[in-house]
Amino acid sequence: MAAATQIRVTLEMIKWEHSVFALPFALTGAMLAANGLPSAHILLWILVAMVTARSAAMAFNRWADAALDAANPRTRMRAIPAGLLTPGFVLGFTLLMAAIFEFACWQLNRLTLLLSPIVIVVLFGYSYMKRWSRLSHLILGLSLGIAPSAAWIAVRGSLDPRITLLTMIVLLWTAGFDILYACQDMDHDRQAGLHSIPAELGLEASFRIARFAHVAVVVLLALFAYLFRFGLAGDVGVILVSGLLFYEHRLVSPRDLSRLDAAFFTMNGIIASVFFLSVAFDLLLKVRH
Prior knowledge:
This protein has 13 helices and no strands. It is an all-alpha fold. The chain has a single domain, classed as Orthogonal Bundle (Tetracycline Repressor, domain 2), CATH 1.10.357.140.
């Protein structure tokens, strides 16, 4: 396979464009920790750590799930089942990204480096959780939710309990939309013996759980805004995110999953970006005054 084609297939495999889900929350954590813009050095290595950690996690998931993907009509054309990339290449890419992630953590501070193996365990562990427990949705949520707390540690070298609330918010937000996304694989998961919430509880219960998770997100966002003393821009961002979450649930229902991709990819990317931009604008206004 030509190098350019292999790079294109690899980028498609890891869905690099979906970094928009977690990256805005990492940048939010970094800016809150710095009370504005972090230094260029810190910002650079946070970005490197985020991109490589996510790339390693996605590649490992494709490697670990290759047989399951081959048996699922929705995923059988992914890179490994389709023969576009070999399992050995994907595993090698995973290890390379993990190594660069560790190097980025070393460039930040001691606590970031010491905690980095725990991040790897969570990121890789998600791929196997659905084989054992319906809590896999929460582990995926934790995988993204680590981002703001990790970025805070990268800036300050310590952890403030307030930022862990944003970790909980991202965890519940991600778990909620992952439950909805898993609805389309309900029949396959049952046949394969996988323990997703839709496979075990059905569509109606899955939608109720996802809605509950996102209502909790709205409540916790209001508390988060209070703890960090958001100004008008930050408060408007919280209101917009709450409205977008409500709209997301209007796009799909247990009887109509046809707009699931729009709810999952488009809306969640917008939600993450709106939240970051509103908090960043709020912080920069405070710095100017």
